[in-house]
Amino acid sequence: MLQFNSDKTNIEKRILLIIVFLFILLRLINLGSKSLWLDEAWSLEFAKQPILDILLNTWERTPPLYYLLSSFWIKIFGDSELSLRFPSFLFSVLSACVFYLLGKEIFNKKVATLGLLFYSLSSYQIWFAQMNRTYSMFVLASLLSFLFFVKLLKNQNKKLSFYFVLSTCFMCYSHHYCIFNLLVQILVLFFLYINDRPKFYSKKWFISYVAIFVIYLPWFIVMLEQAFKLKKNGFWIAKPTFYTIYFLYNKLLFWNLYSFSCILLAFVVLLISYNCYKNFVKNKTLYLLLILWATIPLIIPALISLFTTPILEEKYILCASIPVFYLLSKAILNIKNSYLSAVVTIVVLAIMSFSYYQYSNWELRNWKNITQKINSQIENKDYVVVADPLPYKYILNYYLSQEVIDLRSYFKKSSEITNKKIFLIYHGFSNVNNAKEKKQNGLRMLRKLQKYSPNFQLLDSLNYRDGVYAYVFNFSTSYTSSQN
């Protein structure tokens, strides 16, 4: 009997090691080969600022912790695509360990192992594990906060309280959406207080959250200032609809396989709902925790977005998929028919695997290829001017051999530029889908340029790819309006 248990334990360990290896491998593939995209270039530019500017954070809306770490990282390891993305990869690998520990704490080893398998194959999680942004760190910090939160629910002691405060502050300085994770925790505590007041250690919890608030207060004030500015000036995010919410959950779990995954997502929701209904009474607190964690970070921002300034964005709710992996794993393992349980597992894994295949052949925009073409056409004395907002300037500066200036800087010094070839790069405005409209936008931009600098001659109009265009011109005694 002891030998049988030992063999079973060894098999479980080997399966777990295989899943961890798969987790690491999928996040390593293409880590440094794909082109940076706009937000990654923005993160790099911000990380290059002086430390005081990063702390004061005058032009980036997310907390400064990731950029401080990135600032030190690039000074040591450089700013290649691989180097820039490696911290996010490390955060994701560490999150796998915490994911397993939290799964064991909430349910058991089997749920934690199957959930980790789903987590390892999640294309959406892999995408952000391969990105020079804060989101992978936010997932790790959230998992740590919830791990010590669950441990404290079971056993109150000072050491765990300290780790809880530390990990939650780590989460708060990772991303604004920490507010919704904190709301989940507070609602669970409120539920416990109502249902079991004599055993509830309200004073200890109160002290922990006061400590968190005091440490978070400096950035909370900055966040409020940014919120008022957003309400006044607006934000780039569109207002959500019911389809938006469905689409976000679909993407979190199954990437972009809408034709297949829409049916599977409905099945997953029904399966999880049925399991929660049947087993909620046995473990009310932890089921409530997972249900709230899976819904609050999406539903509350959606409501805010509908009635005030839109703030709901797919990458901000990355953590909401974590409790879904736990709930799905528990629901599958609770299916009494072992063959049916195996079939459901295989179907989910097959869809997620195909989603990963789709993701591995996808790229948001290949700026590396675009800029190689631009580099082949420009010479040392040429000027490269970017007409679009700042992130476009940063991504072009990263890949181009020539320094890129924005349109405003160009207008200030245009009178000094003579006998120079100018490359005016513009993106064609990503919110415009019609190619003709994009070209018209470019022509309107040229007319604006003519207003400020009337003595130039249009030499060429270039279309690179992915909606990136360029007008090439130089200064002369007259402007050739026939080109317009």
Unreliable runs, pLDDT <50, ≥5 residues? 429-434, 476-484
- Taking all Cα atoms into account, the compactness measure Rg is 26 Å
User: Number of folding domains?
Assistant: 2
Taking the alpha carbons of the first and last residues, their distance comes to 86 Å
Order of helices and strands: HHHHHHHHHHHHHHHHHEHEHEHEE
Instruction: Report mean pLDDT, rounded to a whole number.
Output: 81
Give the helix/strand class. Answer: mainly alpha
How do the strands of the widest beta sheet line up side by side? 2-1-3-5-4
Largest sheet properties: 5 strands, mixed
Number of strands: 5
**Overall 3D geometry?**
globular
Strand proportion, as a percent range, falls in 5-15%
Helix percentage: 55-70%
Explain this structure to me?
This protein is mainly alpha-helical and 484 residues long. It folds into 2 domains: 2-360, no CATH class; 367-483. It is 68% helix and 6% strand. It has 20 helices and 5 strands. The N and C termini lie far apart (86 Å). Residues 429-434 and 476-484 have low confidence and may be disordered.
Q: What is the fold's blueprint, element by element?
A:
Layout lengths: L1 H27 L9 H10 L3 H6 L8 H13 L3 H26 L2 H13 L1 H7 L5 H20 L3 H15 L5 H18 L6 H32 L8 H13 L3 H22 L4 H24 L13 H13 L4 H23 L6 H11 L5 E4 L3 H10 L4 E3 H7 L7 E6 L8 H18 L3 E8 L5 E7 L9
Parallel strand pairs: 1-2, 1-3
Antiparallel strand pairs: 3-5, 4-5
Helix pairs in contact: 1-5, 1-6, 2-4, 2-18, 5-6, 5-7, 5-8, 6-15, 8-9, 9-11, 10-14, 12-13, 13-15, 14-15
